[in-house]
Design a protein that fits this description.
Thrombin, subunit H; 6-stranded antiparallel barrel; 26 strands
Length: 486
């Protein structure tokens, strides 16, 4: 019986024994070596297994010794009489059997050893002659088997030559990534940034990517690639290796965008798509210089993972999320679709333990809007601001603290139009011109509808405090100031 089976004591069927527990075997004999074994007392006289609680005192069946029947009660007396007579004969038989066993074991050992040594020797010999060992070979093992000698040759100017073969790929054999890269890569550049006043001999203090947007040398990139400064020195390296010194036209920290101008003509501007038309699951490829100029023109592939992601409290950009690999140096480069059209500008990635494949790009529609203003004015000219910072009073916190949802004011800047009003930090903005505000993102979206100089009415909630003042709600009118993003 296999070791992994036991007998079910209820129905005598074999069942798996996962625990390798002690087994109860059905036995047809009651003892070993003519001795009663107490470990088998849980078997009845018919050899069937029994429950441990069902064991009964053991009574041996009648036995026959040497052809003479002996009743159970007289077996011991009979054995006493035969014991002396058979003891010498048994000893002699045991000695003979033992001797035969030793001789047989020795013969078997030497036979196996000789066969093993013979095989081992044959394999080594075959290997030493570089010939495969084959037990079924027709060649006699007693004959020498030698390989033919190597040819006696030297270099031959008329000898055979090898060559490569053209793939003859048609456009139909190109995959989407091939086509997209060929179209967009001439429009993506590497940007090296230098300290203000640098002579461009000292090593660059940062490298990123950029997108050519006009034939005459306007290039879009991230504000952080140029150190969020109009005075940073920059050098542009095209995808063909040609280099130009550039000047920064304008930056916008709020959206992390900047525009650079180089003195060049005949460049290849990128085709820019309407980012409102892309969808989750679309193919997306990132082109840039991850790791800097040493790895320029790198293509990574992925998909559009999500839309309208908010990464920071300013909320001025709703990002495209992608799983195309984005690394330091990709910032300012292009996120393109399968047709090679720019759908966004690669900007950042989520870097944290247990996170992977979460990169983010500024949508192309936001890119076009801000870049056009930077080219025309050097800054974003029509964005209003209240000059405050804040966070969201969530539904959970509002229920827990008995406060309304909205934007919690955490800081009021000194130049804010709210600086000289009764509004204080920790107050909650719950509405703009009567429209309810439930989060900081909703607040920023609503504020985009207004221009600098517009007057807005804010509804403010102030909770009760330790001095015993009750919670109050009041309105305040403020004039929006201009936010140039610098």
């Amino acid at each position: 019986m296999p070791d992994d089976f036991r007998y079910d004591l209820n129905n005598n069927n074999e069942t798996p024994n996962a625990n390798n527990s002690q087994m109860n075997f059905p036995m047809n004999s009651y003892a070993f070596n003519n001795k009663q074994d107490e470990s088998f007392e849980n078997f009845n006289q018919n050899g069937a297994p029994m429950r441990y609680s069902d064991t009964q005192p053991y009574t041996p069946p009648p036995q026959s010794f040497g052809g003479n029947y002996v009743p159970p009660g007289n077996a011991n007396a009979y054995l006493q009489g035969k014991k002396k007579k058979n003891s010498g004969l048994k000893a002699a038989l045991w000695c003979v059997c033992a001797g035969i066993g030793v001789v047989a074991a020795a013969l078997v050992f030497f036979l196996v050893q000789s066969l093993t040594d013979s095989d081992s020797l044959e394999i080594q010999e075959s290997h030493s002659r570089n010939a495969p060992y084959n037990r079924n070979s027709e060649v006699s093992y007693g004959e020498d088997v030698l390989l033919p000698d190597a040819p006696d040759v030297s270099a031959d100017e008329n000898g055979p030559q090898i060559s490569t073969q053209n793939l003859n790929q048609s456009s139909s054999n190109e995959n989407a990534a091939n086509k997209a890269f060929k179209k967009a890569s001439p429009s993506v550049v590497c940007i090296s940034s230098y300290q203000s006043g640098s002579d461009y001999i000292i090593t660059a203090n940062g490298e990123g990517s950029g997108i050519i947007i006009t034939e005459d040398g306007y290039i879009a990139t991230n504000s952080h690639v140029v150190n969020d400064s109009n005075t940073t020195g920059v050098m542009i390296t095209l995808n063909n290796g040609q280099q130009y010194l550039g000047s920064i036209i304008g930056i916008d920290k709020k959206t992390d965008l900047a525009v650079i101008k180089i003195d060049a003509d005949g460049l290849t501007p990128a085709d820019i798509a309407n980012s409102d038309e892309i969808a989750v699951g679309d193919e997306a490829y990132a082109i840039g210089s991850p790791g800097g100029s040493s790895f320029s023109n790198t293509l990574t592939t992925g998909t559009v993972s999500a839309m309208n992601r908010v990464l920071s409290s300013n909320g001025y950009v709703k990002y495209i999320q992608t799983d195309a690999a984005i690394n330091p140096g990709n910032s300012g480069g292009a996120l393109i679709n399968k047709d090679g059209y720019v759908i966004g500008m690669n900007t950042s990635k989520l870097v944290a333990t247990d996170y992977e494949g979460m990169g983010f790009a500024i949508p192309s529609n936001t890119l076009v809007e801000i870049v056009n203003k930077l080219i025309k004015y050097g800054y974003v000219n029509d964005r209003g601001t209240l000059g405050i910072e804040g966070s969201t009073a969530t539904l959970y916190s509002s229920k827990l603290n008995n406060i309304p949802q909205g934007m919690i004011i955490s800081k009021i800047h000194s130049d804010s139009p709210l600086a000289n009003t009764e509004v204080m930090a920790n107050d909650i903005i719950t509405a703009i011109d009567g429209k309810k505000v439930k989060s900081i993102n909703e607040f920023i979206d609503m504020l985009k509808e207004y221009k600098p100089g517009d007057t807005v009415t804010l509804t403010i909630f102030r909770s009760s405090n330790s001095s015993g003042k009750k919670a109050t709600t009041f309105d305040v009118d403020v004039i929006l100031k201009e936010d140039k993003g610098n």
